[in-house]
Amino acid sequence: MAEKSIIVENLTYRYGSLMAVDHISFEVGAGEILGFLGPNGAGKTTTVKMLTGQLRPQEGHAILLGRDIVKETHAVRSQIGVCFEQTNLYEQMSALDNLLLFAELFGVKGCDGYALMKRVGLDGREKDKVSGYSRGMKQRLMVARSLVNTPEIVFMDEPTAGLDPVSSEAIGNIILEERDRGATVFLTTHDMWEADKLCHRVAFMDQGKIAALDTPHNLKQRYGKRSLVAEVAAGTGLEKREINMDTSGTARAVEELFEKEKVVTIHSEEATLEDIFIKVTGRRLTE
Amino acid sequence: MNPRVIKALLKKDFALFTSNRFYLLITVVGLVFYVGIYFVLPAQLDEKLSLAMYAPVMPPAFSQLTKHEGADVKFFSTEESLKQAVLDGDYQAAIALPPDIMDTWASGGKPEIIVYYASTAPPEVNAAIVALVKELSYAQTGQALNIETTEEILGPDMLGNQIALRDRMRPLLAIFILLVEIMALASLIAVEIEQGTARALLVTPLRISELFIAKGLLGVGLAFGQAVLFMALVGGFSHQPSIILVTLIIGSAMVVGIGFLLASLTRDVTAVTGWGMLILILLAVPGFGTVIPGLISDWARVIPSYYLTDTVSRVANYGAGWGDVGTNLAILTGITAVVIWAGMLTLRRRYQ
C-alpha cells in the first residue's frame, strides 16, 4: 500500500453505557477507496464524526495526512471534504452560492463553481434555488460541495442512498475520478454492489468493531464459495444442479454433468459481499 | 479570526434573513408601524381643565376663572343644559352657581354650589374641582385660608414641559424593534441546526468563534440599524445622541445574547416563536413604565431590559447626561456580557 492517508489506532467512543465504536484500528492508503459497511447503529457515522473532528475520541487517536485530528483539527479540515447522508444545503440560496460560500470558508481563491456543477451534471441549473432541486440533484450538489477545496480525503456517507440509477452512477463515476486524481475516499454505504464495484478494500463494521477488512476479492476467497450452477432438463421442467468449484473433483463433476444430464444453462456464481457479511457477523446489512 | 470567513458568513446570513418573508415582513412592517404609531399619537399634552359652568350671577372671583390659562370654561344658559353636557360626556365636571349666591354671601350665609361629575370622572378630578370652588369662594368672601402652603417639586420640574404620550412611547417602541430581532436571530440559528447546515459548516476550517462573531454582527447590525433609523425618524436624538447610540448598541448586543440563549434552548422554529413571544412580552414590561409612570414598581429592575428603556427614556425625554445614566449603562453592560457568555456557552453545546 502507498503512503497512509488515514491511520486509526484504538479509536473508541461511548454514548453513555453504549459502546458505539470499540477500539478500532485500521489504515487507509493515499488514493485508496475504503468502503465502510455495516447495518444502522454499527458505529460507521460515529467513526466518520471522529475522523472529521466532529466528535472527540474518548480513547485512541486518528492521524489524517500526518496530523492528529484532535490536535490539529482545523489544519486537517482544510484538506478534507465531507458529503453527508442527509441533505444539508442552504435551500433558499442558489446552488452556485452554496458552492461559493463553502469555497470561501475553505479559503479557495477563484473557485470555478460552474465547472464543479458541470462535473456533477448540474450545469444550466447553477442559479436555481436548491429548494427546487430533486433529491438526486441535491445529493449531486452535496458531492460537488465536498469537492470545492480539492480535498485529499473525501468522506462520503451513503452518497447514493435512495437515488435513481442515473444519479447513483454519476456519483459512482465522481468517486472513481477522485481516486484517479489521487484522493483517498472513505465511503460509508449499505450498498454491497456499489462497494464491490468501487472500493479497493472494504471494512465490515458490526457492534462498534471491525469484523473484517480486506479487498472484496480476498474476502470472497476467504469466506465465499465459488460454484457452477446449471439448469438441466427434467421431464417437462428444469432442475438446478450446483458444483463446488473449490474442490479437486470439480472438472470430473462438470464432465459427468454433461455426460448424464441435458444441460440447458450453466454459469459460475460467487458469493456476494452481503453473503460474506452475513457469514462474518451473523447479521444482515439491512437489519 | 479570519475576516474573509466572517464576511462570507454574514453575506450568507443576510441572504437567508432577507429570503425569509416572515421576518422580512415583520421587520419592515414593524418599523413602519412603530413610526406610524408615533406620529399618530398627539404631539402635545392638553393641560387645560375643561369645565362647564352655569352662573346666572357671576361673582367677580369666579369670573377670574375664565381668564386662567389653565382652565377652559364653557358657560351654559340653563342648569339642565349643563347637566346634559356632562351626561353626554362633553365634560367630566360642571359647576352650577345658585341665583342668590351674592345675596347669601352678603347676609353671611353659605350658598349651595352644586358640582356635577360624570360617572367616568377619576377621583382626582372630583377633589380638584372641590378644592377649586373652595378657593374661589374664599377669594370672593375675602377670608383667607387659615393655612400656609409651601410647594416643593420632587424630580424634574415638568410644569409647562410635560411629555407628550408619543414621546413617552418612544423608548418602548424602540425597545420593541430591538426585541423582535431576538426571534429573527434565534430562528436563523435554529433553522441551521435543524436542517444540519451548521454541521456542514463545522467540518470546514471555520472556527466556532467565527460563527458566533458573524451571527453576533448580524444580530447587532439588524437590531441597532432599525432602532437607530426609528429614533432618527421620530426625533429621538435631540438630546445626547451619543448616549442614546451607546445604549442602543449595548441593547442590541444584549438582544444577540438572548437570541443565542433562545436558539440553544429550543428545538425548532415553532418553539423559537412560542418562547420568543413570552420573552418579548417580559422584556417589554419595563417599557410600559415609561409610558405610564408609576405603573411598574421596583421589581422591574430585575428585568434586564429595564436598564435599556430607563436609560433611553431618561436621556431622550428628561435630558439626562452621562453622569445620570452611568450606573444604568454599567449594569446594562454587565448583564449583556453575562447573557452573551451564557448564550455562547449553551449554543456551542447545541452546535456540537
What labels would you give this structure?
heterodimer; A: 287 residues; alpha/beta; 6-stranded mixed β-sheet; 4-stranded antiparallel β-sheet; 10 helices; 13 strands; 30% strand; globular; B: 352 residues; mainly alpha; abc type-2 transporter like fold; 4-stranded mixed β-sheet; 13 helices; 4 strands; 66% helix; elongated
Distance between the termini of chain B: 20 Å
Principal-axes shape call of chain A: globular
Task: List low-pLDDT spans of chain B.
Answer: none
Strand-pairing-aware structural class of chain A: alpha/beta
How many helical elements of chain B? Answer: 13
Largest sheet of chain A: 6 strands, mixed
- Main β-sheet, spatial strand arrangement of chain A: 6-7-8-3-9-10
The two chains with the largest interface, and their residue counts, are: A-B, 26 and 25 residues
What is the helix content of chain A? Answer: 25-40%
Mean pLDDT of chain A: 91
Strand residue content of chain B: 5-15%
Q: From the helix content, strand content and strand pairing of chain B, which structural class follows?
A: mainly alpha
**Biggest sheet of chain B, strands in spatial order?**
2-1-3-4
Q: Can you write the helix and strand succession of chain B as a string?
A: HHEHEHEHEHHHHHHHH
Radius of gyration of chain B: 29 Å
Largest sheet of chain B: 4 strands, mixed
Helix content of chain B: 55-70%
Shape of chain B: elongated
Count of domains of chain B: 2
For this entry, what is the oligomeric state of its chains?
heterodimer
How do the strands and helices of this protein lay out in sequence?
The complex is a heterodimer of chains A (287) and B (352).
Chain A: E1 4-15, E2 18-29, E3 33-37, H1 44-51, E4 59-64, E5 67-68, H2 73-77, E6 80-83, H3 95-105, H4 113-119, H5 135-146, E7 153-157, H6 165-181, E8 184-189, H7 192-198, E9 201-206, E10 209-214, H8 216-223, E11 227-234, E12 237-244, H9 250-260, E13 263-269, H10 273-281
Parallel strand pairs in A: 3-8, 3-9, 6-7, 7-8
Antiparallel strand pairs in A: 1-2, 1-4, 4-5, 9-10, 11-12, 11-13
Chain B: H1 3-19, H2 21-40, E1 49-54, H3 60-67, E2 71-76, H4 79-87, E3 93-96, H5 101-106, E4 114-117, H6 123-141, H7 165-194, H8 197-201, H9 208-233, H10 241-265, H11 269-291, H12 306-318, H13 322-351
